[in-house]
Amino acid sequence: MKVAKKFSVIALALLLVILPAFSSKVHGLESQGGGVGPKIKGLQLGAQMSLDGLVKSLTDLGKLPFIIDVNNDRNSTSMNTIAILFNGYGSELRNFTILSAVRECAELRKRSWENLTDLLNAIDAVGVEDTNIYFGTIKKYPENIVTFDETRRVTSFKLYRSDFPNYPRRADEFLSVFTSEYKIPFDGRLRGNIWRYRDESKGWQVTCHIALSEIIIIFTLI
User: Fold this and answer.
1) What secondary structure letter does DSSP report for 9?
2) What pTM did the predictor assign?
3) Cα 148 to chain center, whole Å?
4) pLDDT tens digit sequence for 79-92
5) Which of 17, 26, 42, 63 has its CA 20 to 30 A from that of 217?
């Protein structure tokens, strides 16, 4: 009886060790919470991203000006909303303006912020459920260039050929240079206007949609 009880305790302990590791592999994430796949201009699947990191990535991609609207998605449960306009051109950030703020974020609006990172960290501390991104200076149509899960891990991100102005223009040459730089296996086989690489073991994939004047590159967790 004692032997059986001892065996059950050992089995339970082993199960508690194995299950977290198995769960992390299912979701394509390392047990420590790290990202998977290549890191491109601050974006990486599975990695946690703060507001400061998101702003820096969008700026590095030359997306200025843009607006980030926090906790204002229709599915958001948080009432602490804030919208910030980041002014500039391309990748040159000139200034930022708080367009609106509600509840706890309204208190942040009352303060004078000389350091943008301090403001973004303060918003993270209040709590960020979702972020809508709008390119330009007016909120029209949100752009799903980066998506997150409930723990602020990146679940997908989107890039364009125009984000890499120094790369070749021809699609096959562009993909050859892009995949070589970011160490993505490339077989050169296009199915119609689509090329895809899928890493089943780590749980991510990249899909390239080729148009006449643009290539859309979408990274997603699987």
Assistant:
1) H
2) 0.82
3) 6
4) 999 999 999 999 99
5) 26
